[in-house]
TrEMBL record:
Residues 321-391 form the THUMP-like domain. Signal peptide: none annotated. One of its GO terms (biological process) is methylation. Gene3D superfamilies: Methyltransferase PG1098, N-terminal domain, Vaccinia Virus protein VP39. One of its GO terms (molecular function) is methyltransferase activity. This is Class I SAM-dependent methyltransferase.
């Protein structure tokens, strides 16, 4: 950690060049020959990436940024804040601390937080940044988190883990046992140190695969930010063996969309029906959850087809996702397509449909954009149909 980067003139230069092209800046002569030019450029690039994702870091003075990859891989402040709403108690240990964004928000809920980071340089940077952010209740430990857990010999209210995929796991199906730390292998040891464990995984992990590797799962949170799934959060409690609750949340600028259900609840049966006046498309968190029958049952909506995951109703209702008014429902045939959509402009979505968006556009000469939204899908009688809609939400 080079503290010379905190020189006021260098900090002023970094701030003045936020958003500038790094490749163009790299061609300039280093105005600060006593400090590595690559390090200064890295600060500019990383801080630029932090502007929207980490506003508390961006606005604080004398923050030192690690590599831009660390910024890209870390939780955003919005998802970290949601994560912190899950935990409570006196103490929490984070076994995979990283940049410390999650711990910053945990520290608002928990009296004492411990940040473990195997990279000593990153650990020092995080310790320095917490001082600049005025967070006194986080202690940083560099080194192997398993060794830290043993040496501290404490009963923790929460253990938090964000395992990362090993380099040799690329190309493989995402499995927790291919990550560091190996949570399935160490789970019993973790439960000797805490009754509650919170695990963050990438959305790439299949929920059913995760459940095969983990035990004592009580709740799974599927967290989307602006309709892009960012992470899965797994709440584990020692000795728990009851129903598993799926909680989906889509964090939006002005509100949060939520939908919860109990996994494998056989009482939630869908009702199928033909297109009515309104069409509903669930947000990405619900799509990841697989709770498609539960959506139909909870909102009293007809499902178009078992595999279409689109819903319809005669009366408009509030819904966690996109909502459309159906202007026309046509069979997918040459005559109908020529009459209604050939050589027009429309936004196209396919759901349970054999042709791709690209092939549909090419075949019928449909330009992208405009105010029309067309869903190419399959109805309950297995007929291919097109729903021509206008967007409400």
């Amino acid at each position: 950690m080079d503290l010379m980067i905190l020189d006021p003139k260098i900090q002023q230069f970094i701030n003045a060049n936020i958003g500038r092209s790094i490749s163009k800046l790299a061609l300039q002569k280093n105005p600060f020959p006593d400090v590595d030019w690559i390090s200064i450029l890295n600060q500019i690039e990383a801080k630029t990436k932090a502007k929207d994702k980490l506003p508390n870091w961006f606005t604080a003075k004398n923050i030192i940024y690690p590599s831009k990859i660390s910024i890209e891989q870390t939780s955003s402040e919005k998802t970290a804040s949601y994560k912190a709403s899950i935990v409570s108690g006196e103490n929490l240990i984070d076994l995979t601390g990283g940049l410390g964004v999650d711990d910053y928000f945990f520290a608002k809920q928990i009296k004492t937080v411990v940040h473990c980071e195997i990279n000593p340089e990153l650990s020092n940077i995080v310790k320095h940044n917490f001082e600049q952010l005025n967070v006194p209740n986080i202690t940083c430990y560099a080194g192997d988190s398993l060794a830290t857990l043993i040496s501290l010999n404490t009963k923790w209210d929460w253990i938090y883990i964000d395992p990362s995929r090993r380099n040799d796991a690329k190309g493989k199906v995402f499995m927790l046992r291919d990550c560091l730390p190996n949570v399935p292998e160490n789970l019993n040891f973790y439960f000797n140190n805490s009754n509650a464990i919170l695990i963050k995984t990438a959305p790439l992990l299949d929920i059913s695969a995760g459940l095969l590797e983990l035990q004592n799962v009580k709740t799974i949170h599927i967290v989307a930010l602006e309709n892009e799934v960012k992470e899965l959060l797994w709440e584990l409690y020692k000795g728990y063996s009851g129903n598993i609750t799926i909680k989906t949340v889509n964090l939006l600028k002005d509100k949060n969309e939520t939908f919860n259900f109990v996994l494998d609840d056989q009482t939630k049966l869908p009702v199928f029906g033909f297109p009515q006046k309104y069409l509903y498309e669930p947000n990405s968190a619900i799509m990841k959850s697989g709770g498609f029958d539960e959506v139909s049952s909870f909102y009293n909506l007809n499902k178009l087809h078992k595999h279409s995951h689109l819903y319809t109703s005669e009366n408009l209702i509030p819904f966690p996702g996109r909502v459309f008014e159906i202007q026309n429902a046509i069979p997918y045939s040459k005559t109908e397509m020529k009459t209604y959509l050939e050589n027009t402009q429309a936004n196209i979505t396919t759901r349970n449909f054999p042709d791709s968006v690209e092939s549909i556009r090419k075949k019928w000469k449909i330009k992208d954009g405009g105010n029309l939204y067309c869903f190419f899908t399959t109805d309950e009688n297995n007929h291919k149909i097109v729903l021509i809609c206008t967007k409400i939400k």
